[in-house]
Amino acid sequence: MDPVVSAGIVAAGVGLITGFAAGLAFRISERDRVDPAPAPEPVLPLAVSNVLSVLRSSAVVLDQTDTVVKASPTAYALGLVQGDRLLAAPLLEQARAVRRDGEIREIDFDLPSGKRHEPPLAMSARVAPLGVRLVLVLVEDRTESRRLEAIRRDFVANVSHELKTPVGALALLAEAVGSASDDPEAVRRFADRMQHESARLTGLVQELIDLSRLQAREAGSRAEPVLVDDLVQSAIDRTRSIAAANRIDVHAGGVQGLKVLGDERQLATALGNIVENAVNYSPGETRVAIGIGTDSEGRTVEITVSDQGVGIPEPEKNRIFERFYRVDPARSRSTGGSGLGLAIVKHVVHNHGGDVRVWSVEGSGSTFTIALPLFEAAHTQPLREATP
Ligand code: ADP
Q: Which ligand 1 atom is nearest residue 368's CA?
């Protein structure tokens, strides 16, 4: 849920409950004036109970001895409450302070996730008086929104960093051109490099646009049957000149005529990125093999791209699909890589209901496999009569 909306709901909940509580407190104090008998055990009015049960937050109501009078099922599930005790020490501390001065408090605190090797949950709580004796604690799990915030922050920092490099280079080159005006050869050389840097900048901006589009939109809006052979051919065409320059032999084989359903441009970009990487991360005079086949049940198309390149260290295998993650940033930059290629692959493939895997031995080579649901195999279609 939108944090603003959820904060609004929490605020409304606290307001409503505090309203009930104020009424309750008033009635209790009125009655205390008439009848000076010892205060009865605080009982939670049914209306307050009902409001608590519809709130999304985990709710806990404590009495004046810190005993839990009511707690929502999620408060138990999160491990905030056990039996009639509130276990989270920071909340207890706040509840006592609220009881002392009646001020509403807000805190953020970490809660052990209860699972080994998993980081603690990031919780956020509001603690408010409920009548004269009770204290209400409303707790929200903010782990996911904090994680997204952190990703967004990193992303912006990374983008700025990536943009700064070619922009800085362009500024320097422009300066160099200015001071080399009487040397036509140097001017030509600088102009070439300026072209190279601006192509890199354009590529990076295009990849950023692609990635944000992919994240915003599910595939399927332009789903059409796509021949896998065409995807492979376009990937080979895209890498032809760089492969030739490095004397890398890119060849394809396997089952022909398989089709998948999807957006041809996106799928071609994804496969093209993988084949381009295979070429970029391989030494000269090696081979890149593209294979097309199906899984054993014949339901999934598998496109494999194998190279004899530098390989990927085991601990990095999962990370290479993250945006801007590179095993060797210097090498990646020298090939003009943006660090976004595999993030785009992952999004495209997932948006098409598929999966991308990597197998690699450092120093020997890598195999990337894109698996996509098979739409149809051309050979299962009846052959059309040849028309004269
Ligand atoms: P880049 O633009 O840096 O190539 P990618 O997202 O395409 O970004 O790839 C991320 C990183 O994964 C690369 O920087 C590289 O370290 C590693 N990588 C990708 N493909 C291969 C490959 N075929 N062989 C070795 N390393 C690879």
A: 23
